[in-house]
Amino acid sequence: MSTESEASAQDVAKIIRQIREEHIPAVFLENVTDRRLLDQIASETGAKIGGVLYSDALSDQDGPAPTYLDMFRHNVGTLTAALSS
Question: Please, how many CA atoms are within 13 Å of residue 66, restricted to the half-sphere of its CB?
């Protein structure tokens, strides 16, 4: 889904179908998005929310991704943990 616009009902249905068909175990939030839609998708598919990934914005200085290098480390760790469990 794009963060540029709201997903249509058709887009959401397509994503839910793909997650079910491909047995995708986890879905991920971006740090700049609202999680309500992803909560709904996870609930309907059984996929877990694997965590928050940083893409378009870094965290504050005390967060997990205050620099680009920290962002990459955080994202790789989040993806690895969610997909290997």
Answer: 4
In tens, the pLDDT along 21-72 reads 999 999 999 998 889 999 999 999 999 999 999 988 899 999 999 999 999 9
Vertex 26, ends 24 and 10: CA angle to 5°? 65
pTM of the model: 0.82
The CATH number of residue 60's host domain is 3.40.50.1980
Question: How many Å apart are CA 48 and CA 33, to the nearest integer?
Answer: 17
Does 37 map to a domain? yes
Q: Pull the structure tokens for residue 41.
A: 């998708």
